[in-house]
Design a protein that fits this description.
The complex is a heterodimer of chains A (417) and B (229). Chain A is α+β, with helices and mostly antiparallel strands. Helix content of chain A is 51%, strand content 16%. In chain B, β1 and β2 form a beta hairpin. The chains are: A alpha+beta (417), B alpha/beta (229).
Chain lengths: 417, 229
């Protein structure tokens, strides 16, 4: 009886009911999206690198070392010598290493000097590998492999020739224009900073810096270096390197060995730990996200409250008629609550669907802009609980109009004025 | 048998003087009573008490032999739905329901009214609609009906499921004179068939001629205070 009446009553106020459902479904979908973004950001952030046990670089703060090695943010303070790298690489507990040499850029994208072990060993999101979409990864002197975003944004394909710039500023004025690189491979999208990187070999890195030993080009830079061979190039320095131990038990021992390294001052950080620490520092951001979601939901509930409360004035006669046929004041409360329930139920369902539609629209934008992928996954049980809680609280927000209607119907009895 | 019996009934709103003070009043089963009172005589208050929405501070009120003053609020609501059909002055219908749904309301809220149906609800509605000359309008929206048509739908709703008492609160005050007489005749004819008690309230004394008995509220009500209506 009560649900029969409440459905008919809502249907008779189609426009207001529609607006109300629309506004609460928007608020719910925003809440769910913000939650997903928050998780996506954290997830993407902490999964940018996995399976690596240590990142080793010149002595500095752990965060700084992590940021420039993995996220290509900020700039390295100091380089490390290649001999130190080789010594640690050959340490009996080390399984593999990925050398990293930074400092140049191409059209605003960072150039990463490394070697084949990058594509062999770099892992993200658990055990995802970096894969080539086309071409190949040759450790040739002037071959370059582009991250997916770089290739797409600059419309490069295999065989394109390009000139790198010195320094990491977007408007670098010093070009390495005596060396012409050509695109040998393009990577598949990863949703990590890899997409925005330009990979060259350590040889190439060395070649373009011939004559730059003092940090600036010397006068005789006009010489053509296009025919230098690997044999003529010897890497002296690296920015940092990533390593994995054969057995995790050895990790702390190895870390101590690196920290106490005699030849130069090194830092060895555990990426997973530093990522967690760093994310902890972004707590404020997370709280802001939660705060925004919270208020968005409150606004949704308010719209139910307003829609029902405003309807009460024009429904006095209806209440009197219902009372006259034996409906109790308590059932009037039930009527209002069930209207609030149906509104929040529909809002809950639509909001849930709307979330996926909106994610489909903004997802690619976020991925493109911030390199973070927000996977459109099956609903989690937490999400379903949020929707359930939303419907419950939405129904309860009908309590205020319901109490008002209860009082009205006791006071007015069978008269409507 | 007295279908309504008031005894030493006193009622006042939270603040102020008593609105009703009635020594005794009896209405017999099947009786058709014209309750006359100008506005301010406590009519609406009395109707709210008779239908169990308000309860008096003193005295007893027995309907169908039952002291409804001793019932809980929700039992009184149930009692009203089971045994009383109510017709308002105007705006008798819920505008988001169809005519048939409006008529069927008491059978949806009260088991007793539903069990009183001889036939299915649909055929009872068809019968009432026929009797009250509403057939041509049955599919109209209630807001598109004339006041006279609306009041006839209200009669159908009050009558469905054979309630013991029909209370009509100034049901003709928005009707033209010629429609008024027809309306009252129609109402009384339907009530006669089922021996339903009718309490018809109006300030218009000319209507008294249709009824068995006339009650002048002023002579029963000793309270002199101004009431709400």
């Amino acid at each position: 009886m009560i649900s029969f009446l409440s459905l008919k009553s809502l249907a008779s106020r189609k426009f207001i009911s529609f607006l109300c459902v629309l506004s609460i479904s928007l608020s719910l979908s925003l809440f769910l999206i913000v939650e997903k973004l928050r998780d996506g950001v954290q997830d993407g952030f902490t999964n940018t690198i996995s399976q690596a046990d240590l990142i080793v670089g010149a002595r500095s703060g752990p965060t700084q070392l992590l940021l420039y090695t993995v996220f290509h943010m900020g700039s390295p303070t100091n380089n490390i010598t290649y001999s130190s790298y080789e010594k640690i690489k050959n340490h009996p507990t080390v399984a593999w290493t990925i050398p990293i040499s930074l400092g140049d850029s191409y059209q605003g994208f960072r150039v990463v000097g490394t070697n084949k072990s990058f594509i062999e060993h770099y892992r993200f999101y658990g055990d995802k590998k970096v894969e080539l979409a086309e071409g190949e990864w040759k450790d040739s002197v002037f071959g370059v492999v582009l991250g997916a975003t770089v290739a797409q944004n600059l419309q490069h394909s295999i065989g394109d020739e390009l000139i790198l710039s010195h320094g990491i500023q977007q408007d670098s004025i010093l070009d390495h224009d005596n060396a012409i690189f050509s695109v040998a491979g393009i990577l598949k999208p990863t949703g990590t900073p890899v997409d925005k990187s330009v990979f060259i070999s350590l040889y190439g890195m060395e070649a373009i810096h011939i004559g730059w030993e003092n940090g600036a080009p010397s006068y005789d830079l006009e010489e053509d270096i296009s025919d230098v061979t690997k044999e003529q190039l010897k890497t002296e320095q690296l920015t940092s390197f990533i390593l994995r131990t054969k057995n995790r038990i050895a990790l702390l021992g190895l870390q101590r060995y690196i920290m106490d390294f005699k030849a130069e001052a090194l830092s060895g950080i555990i990426p997973a730990m530093t990522l967690t620490e760093l994310w902890g520092m972004l707590d404020q951001l997370e709280n802001a996200f939660i705060g925004i979601s919270f208020f968005v939901i409150i606004i949704g509930f308010l719209s139910i409250l307003i829609a029902l409360y405003m309807s009460l004035n024009e429904r006095k006669q209806e209440m009197a008629i219902l009372r006259s046929v034996g409906v109790s004041a308590k059932q009037i409360v039930g009527l209002l609550l069930s209207e609030a329930f149906f509104l929040s139920f529909m809002g809950g369902i639509f909001g849930f669907i709307l979330q996926y539609i909106l994610l489909g629209v903004i997802g690619p934008f976020v991925e493109e802009r911030f390199g973070l992928s927000i996977p459109i996954s099956n609903p989690t049980s937490l999400e379903l609980m949020v929707v359930g809680g939303f419907i419950l609280l939405g129904t309860l927000s009908g309590l205020i109009p319901a109490i008002k209607a209860y009082r009205n119907s006791l006071h007015n009895g069978l008269s409507s004025n | 048998m007295d279908i309504v019996k008031l005894d030493k009934l006193k009622f006042s709103y939270q603040t102020g003087d008593p609105v009703l003070d009635i020594d005794s009043m009896e209405i017999k089963k099947g009786e058709r009573v014209f309750l006359h009172g100008p506005s301010g005589s406590g009519k609406s208050t009395l109707l709210n008490i008779l239908s169990g929405v308000l309860s008096p501070q003193e005295g007893s009120i027995r309907i169908l032999g039952k002291d409804i003053n001793n019932l809980s609020q929700s039992k009184r609501d149930e009692f009203r739905g089971d045994y009383i059909g109510f017709i308002f002055q105007r705006f008798n219908l819920i505008n988001y329901l169809s005519i048939a749904e409006n008529i069927s309301l008491p059978c949806r809220t009260s088991k007793v009214r539903k069990e009183n149906l001889n036939d299915s609800m649909e055929s009872e509605i068809t019968r009432l609609v026929d009797h009250l000359n509403l057939k041509p309008y049955i599919n109209k929206k209630v807001s598109k009906l004339s006041v006279g048509q609306q009041q006839r739908v209200a009669v159908a709703r009050a009558l469905i499921g054979k309630p013991e008492i029909i209370i009509a609160d100034e049901p003709t005050s928005s009707l033209d004179d010629d429609v008024t007489d027809k309306f009252i005749e129609l109402l009384l004819r339907e009530c006669n068939e089922k021996q339903t008690t009718v309490i018809f309230v109006s300030h218009d004394k000319r209507l008294a001629k249709h009824f068995d008995r006339e009650i002048e509220l002023k002579t029963f009500n000793k309270a002199s205070g101004e009431s709400h209506d």
